[in-house]
Amino acid sequence: MNDIVANCVSHNTDVLIIGGGAAGCYAAITAARLDPSLRITILEKANIRRSGCLAAGVNALNAYITEDYSPEEYLEYVRWDAEKIIRDDLVLSMCKRFNRVVDDLEKMGLVILKDENGKYVCRGKRNLKINGENIKPILSRETRRYANIEVFNHVNVTDIVVVGDRATGVVGFSVDCNASYIVSARAIIVSCGGAAGLYRPNNPGFSRHKMWYCPFNVGSGYAMGIRIGAEMTSLEMRFVAQRCKDTIAPTGTLALGVGAKEINALGEAYGKKYGANTSSRAYGATKESSDGRGPCYLKTVGVTREQEEDLWRAYLNMAPAQTLKWIESGESPSRFNVQIQGTEPYIVGGHTGSGYWVDACRRTTIKGLYAAGDVVGGAPKKFVTGAMAEGGIAAETIVQDLKQTKRTSLSETTSVALEKVKDYERRLTPRKDQVFTTDELEEGMQKIMDEYAGGIGAAYRYNSQQLGLARKEIARLQKVLLFQHASDMDELLRVYELKDRLTVCQSLIAHMQDRHETRWPGFGVNTEYPESDENWEFFVNSRVVNSEIEIIHRPLNKGETFYEHTN
Amino acid sequence: MSIRIERERCVGCGACVEACPGNLIKFDPDGRAFIRRPEDCWGCASCMKECRSEAIFYYLGADVGGRGALMQVKRDGAISRWIIRGYDGATFTIVVDRKQANKY
Ligand SMILES: Cc1cc2nc3c(=O)[nH]c(=O)nc-3n(C[C@H](O)[C@H](O)[C@H](O)COP(=O)(O)OP(=O)(O)OC[C@H]3O[C@@H](n4cnc5c(N)ncnc54)[C@H](O)[C@@H]3O)c2cc1C
Ligand code: SF4
Ligand code: SF4
User: Fold this and answer.
1) Pocket test for ligand 1, best of A131, A384, A489 (most atoms within 8 A of CB)
2) Beta pairing class for A461-462 and A525-526
3) Are A323 and A312 in contact (CB under 8 A)?
4) Is A410 exposed, middle or buried (0-12, 13-18, 19+ CB in 10 A)?
5) Domain ranges across chain A
6) Residues A140, B59, A332, B92: is their CA dihedral positive or negative?
7) Structural class in CATH, domain B2-97
8) Where exactly are the structural domains of chain B?
9) Does ligand 3 have an atom closer than 6 angstroms to the CB of B12?
């Protein structure tokens, strides 16, 4: 027998942060600075030192307001890139903070390139050149400077507890040892990042995790919210990234850094044919290939030896596999163009617009629950500085809101949470007749999503009949998973990760079924409605009511009008 | 895509166990680190950068173009030396000064 119920750690705090990534760490730091009397607790499934998207490092700060530009200009850029489906209030509030976040990062020790006059050197209009290899250790070190921040590493949170109409705590388990955690809090920030691994990946075999988005961000943040009826927006705006073939390393360094153009197999530059925003560029490569002019490349041939050596170093600081590939194969970028490919679709509110529907202050539709970073919808192109900015906004809101918030009873939170702990116990009880491994079920999910819900194998295309099948087949796996057991904590983690992914899949499919148009062709083509339609210029939102997914349409807000939840 | 930990070099300090964003590295009964599921590695190199015993090597899977080369990183202050040993034994070193920003 296991003793996960007996080994239950009960804890009490003021501000609880689920996920200590870019947004979560910065939220903790902001709250700690604003009010040293607050107790702030981070629960992190890995270790905040290098967890989440920032593990390998980042190449540049992709979102900064440079001298000749303004937050309003950034807003218009995001509107253009996202084909209008954005929340002006969220984007503006985030980009008004980019530069403050950057100043802070520099003070924490991030190396940012400056010219002889001490001014930051820009890459393109909105990027700053940095050495971002150790950005995550820098952020996690900063959290240690505040005595009122405590961190529980290696704790995977599975559920948010709601008592009455308020989020009052969370429940999770240790990924190392047989222990469960129930933490009650006066305010909770969810900052678990986006969702990778829903679809069959580019490299489905041994290198299945050689993907762009962090494979350990499995959409738990979305799933926890979906289960308690939080409203989600724009899940159908999936993100398909254009990346270096095989290593799935970012391409911005080649395109923006050394000006490499996209070309097809015939050597033709095809960029202008399709448009320049993120979706159009992804569409270009897919279309050129499906029309028989693939593979596509970034034309790097002709860069100098010196540039090439700088590229090796730049990639070692964020995607070391690409440098290894160049050296190991002898096909260095000055002599060989770099082949590119589209990735499997991810759900990631920091690049596209999928995630929690929040008000301007980052309150979700559930009282006591706030959100920040890749898990928040309506504000694409956040990148690292935007994710941190949102963490800062959520923390400031909480510090204000807590002045009027009383503590809810610990016993009620505990009794709801204990039901979940019993579920861990049930799953850890050995079962001899289990047919499938959790890995097999995961593969099943990825195949369904790939074939029926517009994955790579379907060239990102889908129709209503296929989506109907996807929904049915995902429901089948959800039923099978109900009885899935785990031999140890590592297996238990996998069961709950799959549970979260399946939850996100169902909501994603419902969103894709609802939007009767193709607004972002590079991210997916609805073959029944292959064109963009101005009558669909609104948000597709959803929430679960009585176990059913309910779709809600919400209008776009323009300019400085702030959105507030009214229900 | 994965890493390989050379058992003889591992002193069991646990830095890699702490660093891995996917909780993939565990200790064997002798207190030495091993990667539990090589196929689940993201290739972020966090573990290698934290290992002071230079026990961790990085390689590309055969399904993503690997030819059997192993890469390792040696850190000396702000200087990182990335050493790639080809399948033919030839080595290649790239030096990165972490105090310098990327040019691109
Ligand atoms: C490969 C890659 C390269 C990038 N490069 C750049 C760049 O060069 N410039 C730039 O500006 N931006 C870049 N970005 C974007 C940037 O990294 C992200 O937008 C940012 O990190 C998002 O912050 P976040 O806090 O939402 O997510 P993350 O930083 O990923 O944090 C999420 C955290 O939640 C934890 N977590 C997840 N589930 C649970 C759970 N159930 N319980 C407890 N903890 C949980 C995770 O372990 C993780 O620590 C890049 C992203 C990727 C993936
Ligand atoms: S490279 Fe990254 S994902 Fe792979 S084992 Fe090392 S730390 Fe973990
Ligand atoms: S960091 Fe290196 S020495 Fe320390 S446990 Fe890991 S492999 Fe062993």
Assistant:
1) A384
2) parallel
3) yes
4) middle
5) 8-193+348-418, 197-214+230-241+434-532, 242-342
6) positive
7) alpha beta
8) 2-97
9) yes
In ligand 2, the atom with minimum distance to the C-alpha of B43 is 1
Close Cβ partners of A330 (under 8 Å, ≥ 6 residues apart): none
What was the pLDDT predicted at A567?
54
What torsion, rounded to 10 degrees, do the Cα atoms A548, A530, A281, A471 define? 30
Q: If you write DSSP's letter for every residue of A483-526 in order, what string do you get?
A: T---SSHHHHHHHHHHHHHHHHHHHHHHHHHH--S-S-TTT-EE
Question: Which residue's CA is the nearest one to ligand 1's atom 41?
Answer: A157
- CA-to-CA dists, residue A355 to A133, A372, A386, A429, angstroms: 28, 10, 15, 35
Spans in chain A with pLDDT lower than 70: 1-2, 408, 560, 567
At A358, is the secondary structure helix, strand, or coil? coil
Residues A243/A341, Cβ–Cβ less than 8 Å = yes
DSSP B30: T
Secondary structure (DSSP) of B42-84: ----HHHHH-TT--EEEE--GGGT--S-EEEEEEETTEEEEEE
Tell whether domain A8-193+348-418 is in CATH 1.10.3720.10. Answer: no
Q: Determine the Cα–Cα distance for residues A23 and A202; give it in Å rounded to an integer.
A: 28
> ipTM above 0.90?
yes
Closest Cβ opposite residue A321 in set B18, B19, B60? B60
Tokens of A165: 């109409």
Q: How far apart are CA A5 and CA A425, in angstroms?
A: 7
Taking a C-beta distance cutoff of 8 angstroms, is the pair A88, A71 a contact?
no
Nearest to A228 by CA among A367, A131, A33, A324: A367
Phi-psi bin for A334: left (phi > 0), alpha (psi -120 to 50), beta? alpha
With H, G, I as helix, E, B as strand and everything else as coil, classify residue A549.
strand
CA-A50 nearest atom, ligand 2: 7
Q: Which residue has the tokens 């292959």?
A: A530
User: Domain A197-214+230-241+434-532, what fold?
Assistant: Methane Monooxygenase Hydroxylase; Chain G, domain 1 (1.20.58)
CA distance A10 to A8: 6
How far, in Å, are A41, A362, B95 from residue A408 at the CA level? Answer: 17, 21, 55
Q: Which residue has the tokens 């090439």?
A: A308
d(CA A460, CA A454): 4
Span A273-330, pLDDT tens digits: 999 999 999 999 999 999 999 999 999 999 999 999 999 999 999 999 999 999 999 9
Class of domain A242-342: alpha beta
- Closest partner residue to A130 (CB to CB) among B1, B61, B101 is B101
What's the B31 CA to ligand 2 centre distance in angstroms?
A: 19
Total CB pairs under 8 A between chain A and B = 177
- Identify whether the C-beta of residue A24 lies closer than 8 Å to the C-beta of residue A372: yes
> For A56, which DSSP code?
G
Q: What is the pLDDT of residue A1?
A: 47
Instruction: Enter the tokens of residue A162.
Output: 């709601």
Taking each helix axis from N to C end, the angle separating A135-143 and A22-34, rounded to the nearest 10 degrees, works out to 30
The residue to which tokens 């609802």 are assigned: A514
| Helix (H) / strand (E) containing A540 | strand A538-545
Residue A558: the pLDDT is 76
Report whether residue A17 contacts ligand 1, using a CB cutoff of 6 Å: no
Collapsed DSSP state (helix, strand, coil) of residue A34: helix
